Amino acid sequence: MLYKELGRTGERVSVVWLGTWQFGSGSWGFGKSYGEKECLEAVYASVEAGVNVIDTAEVYGGGVSEKIVGKAVKELGDRVLIATKVAPHHLTYNGVIEACERSLNRLGVKTIDLYQIHFPNPLIPITQTMRAMEHLVKTGKIRYIGVSNFSLGQLIKARQALKSEDIVSNQVRYNLLQRQPENHLLPYCIREKINILAYSPLAQGLLTGKYTSTNPPRDIIRRINPLYTRRYLRRIEPLLTELRNLGEKYGASVGQVALAWVFAHEGCVAIAGAKNREQALNNAAAGNIQLTSDEMEKLNKLSMQTRPGAMEIIQTIPRILGF
């Protein structure tokens, strides 16, 4: 497993993190094929394979995700770091502190390693939120401050609101097909030593090669996504072919190579979800792949040819309506 520094903290973190939004989602049984037992096995397997950060949030499963992570951490001890998030409706000074206490209780720990603002809230002054975050650091409730889904402007304002601490990370959507952070955010974060924590690194499964123009997804979430029209699925075939070719070279899957593309960028790590041991081990194995500059250049070139156009977006309209 490859490792990188978290911000300027000196902390070494794996390039693949375990994402746990799916822990406790859906019904209380979680899903048809997994429950708490499988989720715990996914955590243990990830750590065995070298993953040393688990990412969760107070809103995941209505707090169930944090509870499951807490059970796992009780067994794993200091082998793993915990990253969780405070919801945007809890960003007042007292709201942040109270939300942190609830997360600490669910996780069963005294300190959260990385506490992140899940989404910015324009109705609450960022100065108030950051004052609370710094208080939590000073009192030992959290170690590091992070944000999530912040634009460059929002990130800069959040940093300016801090007096004695700094932001170490920004968690945003980033993958081979959705590269918006590269426009302004990524260059700034590289320069300022702020990690980009990439969620949805496989574009909801599109970069696993599972779906094709002849085998489109059937679930409603993907049906309304412009990336899943038959037209767009045909457009990305050359990119998927190259991912398969690289997979053969590295003895890896399409998805593993797509994950490796993410953390090949300076300061970036990939947050990959898993519902069981097999998925966890599959994701973690990507952390051993180091793509060459030539391979990155070819993937980038093919990726730039896949951006969805107006036609893909228009084609989702009847699908949204159920036609």
UniProtKB/TrEMBL annotation:
SUPFAM superfamilies: NAD(P)-linked oxidoreductase (SSF51430). It comes from the Archaea. Pfam families: Aldo_ket_red. InterPro entries: AKR, Aldo/ket_reductase_CS, NAD(P)_OxRdtase_dom_sf, NADP_OxRdtase_dom. One of its GO terms (molecular function) is oxidoreductase activity. PROSITE patterns: ALDOKETO_REDUCTASE_2. Residues 17-302 form the NADP-dependent oxidoreductase domain. This is Aldo/keto reductase.
